Amino acid sequence: MSAIASLFQEAARLAAGFRERAPARHVPRHDYAASLAAFDEPLPAAGADMAEVIRQLATDAEPGLHFTTGPRFFGWVIGGSHPVGVAADFLTSAWGQNAGNHVAAPAAAAVETIAARWLLDILQLPAESSVGFVTGATVANFTCLAAARGEVLRKAGWDADAKGLFGAPEITVLIGDDAHTTVFSALQFLGLGHDRVLRLPTDPMGRIDPAALGDALAPVSGPCIAILQAGQINTGGFDDFIRLIPGLREKGAWVHVDGAFGLWAQASEKFSHLSRGIEAADSWATDGHKWLQTPYDCGYAIVRNELAHRRAMTIAASYLPLAAAGERDPSHYVPELSRRARGFATWAMLKHLGRDGIAALIDQCCASARLLAEHLQREPGITILNEITLNQLILRFAADRPDDESDAITRETIAKIRDDATLFAGGAKWRGRDVLRLSVTNFQTTADEARRAAESIIAAFRSVSNDSRPH
Ligand SMILES: *Cc1c(COP(=O)(O)O)cnc(C)c1O
Q1: Which whole number is the average pLDDT over 173-200?
Q2: What atom in ligand 1 is closest to the CA of residue 141?
Q3: What is the pTM of this model?
Q4: Mutate to test the pocket of ligand 1, among 141, 182, 202, 234 (most ligand atoms within 8 A of CB)
Q5: How many angstroms does the Cα of residue 164 sit away from the middle of ligand 1?
Q6: What pLDDT score does 315 carry?
């Protein structure tokens, strides 16, 4: 066997071993400090054998790896890195394509063109939209909002892409109070400021209050960008696009939607009622590495007005071949020039699952979230705080006790769940109080897995609340 073949086989063997071994614990044995200790050595003077390096990497990294690829990982909102996406990503790395333009990487550019069309189809967004393949929803929000910034100022007679923001007409930025923190980062990167925004009040699900939007909008006359949300990180809540978008349109506002995971409700007949009217927006940010289960890093910046998208992102240089009419250069839609060919993993996931498989994936995650909630709320002392409309669930323990006590018990129960290590879930703050957050975003989280997770959570809570009773 050639050296390359045996090296690649070794990597594949190690990767499959990690995925197939049922972990004894669903949380890492190593924290950051222990992982640091495992790797900490001076820069080696002499090199090492290729296969040895890869084996050592696996040995030293594995104790510090989260089992995010498994069925009982409910932390943050993290997809499962589906094997087909992983295999496509192996090839992507092996091929070493620079996906910047269609001359340097014809197949990568072509696959992005097709994957973009399929994404617009499954997400039921306007077919004329352009799609940038970015690292994730953070950069997707940034990219879409860059297009928004350019276009609302262009309409006011100002070329922001050329002249910047000094001297430009002011832009009113409207955003819900429960928007994701990364959207505020995007505004910061764009010179729009994370505090220089009008934050709109929200309801208990984190949805913008339509009346408050109306009030905020009334005095607006100049350039305006409104940022709505599909899938609030804690509650899974969706803004009411049908009620919100027409008034914004009347004012000539650019409407952007952060749908990092929630946009995928569009792919399911059972859940697309949540996102009704979303196609009337101007841009949408979403992730591949959450609900589509591609490996990290993979997100999509989708913009209805292709020219506005391209104006904001195009890197023009004389040595770069221009795309002819009908050709598509991947770099025209993203901030980077040289980059990974992200379209291959996206294409592979869409091809493997198909329309029906994606709908079934969304439905299974949501059904498992509902089942988790049903089991958990039967336990006295567990209070589910959100309506389970999608895949997100937040709850509090001992909510009948004073807030501070309930906070403490909630935190202790989360710690106990981690110690028990049959699942992983994290804490969050919601309306200033501690909550346990469960996100069902893994293709393997079946009803059985959800039931098992619920039992473990209940057992952890019982043990904590027995300990916390006054003796
Ligand atoms: C995850 C998430 C983001 C950020 O996405 P990344 O993929 O982490 O960059 C933005 N908005 C929402 C609602 C999210 O859930």
Answers
A1: 97
A2: 10
A3: 0.97
A4: 182
A5: 27
A6: 65
